[in-house]
Specification:
Layout lengths: L9 H5 L7 H15 L7 H14 L2 H9 L38 E3 L4 H15 L11 H6 L2 H21 L6 E7 L6 E8 L2 E7 L7 E3 L2 E3 L8 H16 L5 E6 L8 E3 L7 E6 L3 H7 L9 H14 L5
Parallel strand pairs: 1-2, 4-7, 7-9
Antiparallel strand pairs: 2-3, 3-4, 5-6, 8-9
Organism: Leifsonia kafniensis
Protein name: J domain-containing protein
Pfam families: DnaJ (PF00226), NERD (PF08378)
């Protein structure tokens, strides 16, 4: 599976810059081993992470191979033609890529991952310094040396592109809008998907590490205090009020490696059911729904499509 740009690099695990000498790297490895060893009160998970990091960059050959490796699908792909009335379609994805089919694709509107791509390019140029010319903003060494919050914006773009690729495989009975304006302050919904199972608001994310659901919110070291479920609910609520529609479910889709299971939060008041799924389960949820979701009728889907097509605003 391709490496997530948001994941901790071996250099970060060892606590050194990517520019250190081989001898400095060796000293850092030995120091981290002593600190993280379970016999001296360290964490077994951190101890294993240190060993894995050393395996990846501990020799000059391995280090050169790691430093020269390009993140799979980090560079943008040409977009495909959108469905009727739409703009650019889905780009390629890093993981969870759908199998190509010769059958009709879902109607796709907007540019998945486009806003996140623009944000990444702005941040990486600002971080590189005024007057610096970046020959390749997706060069692997540049990505790995950037702060984690910048790498996360690229990981999010890749996640949105992967989700869009899966949605496009659902068939002509589905319509999807990407980078949708959700209300005020530039808030957005990554994807709005309409199909036989209902209307879904989807957030695509990749924080580069595992997460779990606790007390109604996703938590994990890689989230750095972010509250994604709160953000998704706020955006979905603003969208629903503006267009006077009701979502069947809210979905957070993450890389398979980030989740041990599917998490659900039952509907409460006007808030629809919320589901957190690994990417490999997304297509099944969009096709079949889940326990607690109310399935719409064909007539309702047809009416909703017209309402959404007339009311949705796509962000540039």
């Amino acid at each position: 599976m391709p490496e997530s740009p948001a994941a901790s690099t071996p250099y970060e695990v060892l606590g050194v810059a990517a520019t250190v000498s081989d001898e400095e790297l060796r000293r850092a490895y030995r120091r981290r081993l002593r600190v993280t060893h379970p016999d001296v009160g360290g964490s077994a998970v951190e101890f294993q992470a240190v060993q894995t990091a050393w395996e990846r960059i501990g020799t000059p050959q391995n280090r050169a191979a790691y430093d020269g490796h390009r993140f799979a699908d980090a560079e943008p792909h040409p977009t495909r033609t959108a469905g009727a009335g739409g703009r650019s379609g889905a780009g390629g994805g890093a993981s969870g890529r759908a199998t190509q089919s010769s059958g009709p694709k879902a109607r796709m509107h907007g540019h998945p991952g486009g806003i996140a791509r623009q944000h990444y390019l702005t941040l990486i140029k600002e971080w590189s310094g005024r007057g610096t010319t970046l020959a390749d903003p997706y060069a692997p060494q540049l990505i790995r040396s950037a702060p984690r919050e910048i790498r996360h914006t690229l990981a999010k773009a890749l996640a949105e592109e992967s989700t869009a690729q899966l949605i496009s495989s659902l068939g002509i009975g589905y319509t999807a809008w990407h980078d949708v304006e959700a209300g005020h302050k530039g808030d957005k919904l990554d994807h709005v998907v309409l199909g036989p199972a209902g209307l879904f608001a989807i957030m695509s994310e990749d924080w580069g590490g595992p997460v779990e659901l606790k007390r109604g919110e996703l938590v994990g070291e890689s989230l750095a205090g972010a509250k994604p479920i709160d953000a998704l609910e706020d955006s979905a609520r603003a969208f629903s009020r503006a267009l006077r529609v009701k979502f069947t479910a809210l979905i957070v889709v993450l890389p398979d490696a980030a989740l041990n299971d599917v998490y659900t939060l039952p509907a409460r008041g006007r808030r629809p059911i919320l589901v957190v799924v690994p990417r490999s389960r997304l297509v099944g949820v969009l096709r079949e729904g889940m326990l607690g979701m109310s399935r719409g009728s064909f007539e309702k889907v047809f009416e909703l499509r017209s309402t959404l097509q007339n009311g949705i605003r796509l962000l540039d």
